[in-house]
């Protein structure tokens, strides 16, 4: 099963991705997590990506597309993968399609987690993420069992620098301009599905499981 998660920042893509990846045993590929890991390891890619991310802007396509191609060419993606945060531009979507067509593969489902703008700010400012595995929590809606420590791996959880109110505004604008057009793109490819992302985390997951069960 080859799945793309779509939705604005804060929609719950990362949260649902962990659940889906577990349930369907497919790797969770988050470009945001890959960039953050590169930043903390101070790699060349990380240094280049950081400036864009801190401002809430997209990292340029030429730095992003090859990373994803290399990742999905790996053996563990043979039976499927779950892309979280990629593609984010029409150019990225076209590059992904071209790559898959050459391998005689295709996307089975682009799943939109639908959440209106006004719900997003609370989610983003209360978000905490694991410094090691990237798991996403919320101080109110999805707190860690032990304060400050990831449920999955025990590492410290922290606030993301780009989750400040100003940067979130910019990221939502970027989403509207550059990423939202992908909803129509995947509708035209007849693989778009959507779920109501305003419900509880478990209910959203239940809906996703139903949608994926029909594919
Ligand atoms: P969110 O949780 O808001 O969906 P991500 O963790 O997916 O955020 O991404 C954080 C930042 O990483 C983005 O604001 C952007 O700067 C960069 N980024 C992640 N994925 C991509 C991508 N596919 N193309 C360009 N930039 C990306
Ligand atoms: P994205 O990857 O789309 O940016 P996350 O999965 O990181 O989104 O979720 C953003 C924030 O909202 C996190 O703090 C997360 O715990 C919280 N969250 C995710 N799904 C829900 C939900 N259904 N209801 C309430 N809060 C949620
Ligand atoms: Zn963790």
Structure classification: alpha/beta
Runs in which pLDDT lies below 50 for 5 or more consecutive residues are none
Tally of individual helices: 9
- Please report the first level of CATH classification, the CATH class: Alpha Beta
Main sheet attributes: strand count, strand direction, barrel closure? 5 strands, parallel
Number of strands: 8
| Shape descriptor | globular
Taking the alpha carbons of the first and last residues, their distance comes to 9 Å
CATH topology: Rossmann fold
Q: Tell me, rounded to a whole number, the average pLDDT.
A: 96
- The CATH homologous superfamily name equals P-loop containing nucleotide triphosphate hydrolases
The unique ligands bound to this protein are: adenosine-5'-diphosphate, zinc ion
> What's the Cα radius of gyration?
16 Å
- Give the strand line-up of the largest sheet: 2-3-1-4-8
**Helicity level:** 40-55%
Do you know the CATH architecture?
A: 3-Layer(aba) Sandwich
Q: Could you tell me the strand content as a percent range?
A: 5-15%
Give the helix/strand layout.
Blueprint (H helix, E strand, L loop, with lengths): L1 E5 L6 H12 L3 E3 H10 L3 H12 L5 H12 L8 E4 L5 H13 L6 E6 L2 H9 L1 E4 L5 E3 L18 E2 L6 H15 L1 H8 L3 E5 L4 H13 L2
Parallel strand pairs: 1-3, 1-4, 2-3, 4-8
Antiparallel strand pairs: 5-6, 5-7
The site of one adenosine-5'-diphosphate (ADP) has 20 residues, from helix 1, strand 6 and helix 9.
């Amino acid at each position: 099963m080859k799945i793309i998660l779509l939705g604005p920042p804060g929609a719950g893509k990362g949260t649902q991705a962990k659940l889906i990846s577990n349930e369907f045993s497919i790797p969770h590929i988050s470009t945001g997590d890959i960039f953050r890991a590169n930043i903390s390891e101070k790699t060349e890619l990380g240094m280049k990506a950081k400036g864009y991310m801190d401002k809430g802007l997209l990292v340029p396509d030429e730095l992003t597309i090859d990373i994803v191609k290399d990742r999905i060419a790996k053996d563990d993606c043979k039976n499927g993968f779950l892309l979280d945060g990629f593609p984010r531009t029409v150019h990225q979507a076209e590059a992904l399609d071209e790559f898959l067509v050459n391998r005689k593969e295709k996307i089975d489902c682009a799943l939109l987690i639908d959440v209106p703008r006004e719900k997003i700010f609370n989610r983003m400012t209360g978000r905490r993420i694991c410094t090691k595995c990237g798991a996403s929590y919320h101080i109110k809606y999805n707190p860690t069992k032990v304060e400050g420590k990831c449920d999955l791996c025990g590492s410290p959880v922290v606030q993301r620098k780009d989750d400040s109110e100003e940067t979130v505004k910019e990221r939502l604008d970027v989403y509207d301009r550059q990423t939202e057009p992908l909803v129509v793109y995947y509708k035209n490819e007849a693989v778009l599905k959507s779920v109501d992302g305003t419900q509880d985390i478990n209910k959203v997951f239940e809906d996703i499981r139903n949608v994926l069960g029909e594919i």
